[in-house]
Amino acid sequence: MVADAPSLERAAKALASATGPVAVDTERASGYRYSQRAYLVQLRRAGAGTVLVDPIALGGRLDPLVAALDGTEWVLHAASQDLPCLAELGLRPAVLFDTELAGRLAGFERVALGTLVERLLGYRLEKGHGSADWSRRPLPADWLNYAALDVELLVELRDVLERELDRQGKLGWALEEFEAARTAPLPRPRAEPWRRTSGIHRIRSPRQLAAVRSLWETRDTVARTRDIAPGRVLPDSALVEAAVRNPPDEATLSGLPVFRGRAQRRMVGEWFGALQRAAALPKAELPDPAQQHDGPPPPNRWADKDPAAAVRLAAARTALTAVAEANTLPVENLLLPDLVRRTCWQPPADLSVEGVTAALREGGARSWQLGLTAEALAKALATRPE
After folding, report:
1. Which of 43, 41, 16 minimizes the C-alpha distance to 27?
2. pLDDT tens digit string along 324-345?
3. Which among 90, 150, 246, 283 is most buried, taking Cβ atoms within 10 Å?
4. To the nearest 10°, the Cα dihedral for 332, 336, 339, 341?
5. Which class would CATH give 5-183?
6. CATH class of 193-285
7. Angle made by CA atoms 136, 137, 143, in degrees to the nearest 5
8. Which sequence spans correspond to the domains of the chain?
9. Residue 175 near residue 40, CB atoms below 8 Å
10. For all residues of the chain together, what is the average pLDDT?
């Protein structure tokens, strides 16, 4: 366990003098905290053993570790989940191997870490604390054992998957995917995140939508300030219920489910104030009931909005499914579904294989994906309604 500067220096020296790839994992407190920061970083390298780093105790200053890992290959499972919080600590891989992504490309239907380890290495990993509150201090010993197991066999799993990908002729594909994952930009914040409130389908009027938005924004401010998961401040169901009921005063609001609780009664003034602000908005500032998209509409509306596009999409899905099955790949890894939809909704002017290749490349498709899909997609885009 590394929780002070001297132990961090010792761990960094051990890792720097060790050999081979470094197995890396993190533990966050999703569902408990607002932030997605890492509350524990697990590292393992041949010759150094396993190191469990407490970035909270270290104030987030891991400079010796950053220097020790510079230029090394990192092995992670489902890297996109861990890379953002590692980057917050200054930790960025020079080379990446993602065992979950490797498993997908190798054609395994179930790619959870425990499943792959059991199938390919013959060990069964202990489970039980993946959804724990990792912001808790001190961390219990059995939690630390669980965390250490996540990197115990990661390098061995990497080696087996690399050989399997090479056997299938897919190692080059995987290396392209790993690099794309390593260099992917951080996700952009959603334009209107409040629209993802669970149960918002019950809302009918713009005024009620404004109430949900106002409550959501108030809750988000409270959650961010206190570093508490928003759902623990006030569940989505309570936001929707208050918007639908439209209580006339604080006392009525306090009588609604969830709002009767002691914590909510203390904050009833804030929640009712949010409802009042929504009620006072002029009509021009009310949210549009129809959510604005920066891309094509949901596919189930294509037949009405653009029948030709619906035909193109159906043909593309059929063609890509055939290519995926022929190569033992998940179709979503063959080509991103969003890129397929955007290309079918608004095809390039040049429908030749070269023109479609250029459009897909601009949309972020990798070389191996272009080689497998461009010709099939070009044919699909030329499909016309009967």
Report:
1. 41
2. 999 999 999 999 999 999 999 9
3. 150
4. 20
5. alpha beta
6. mainly alpha
7. 70
8. 5-183, 193-285, 299-381
9. no
10. 95
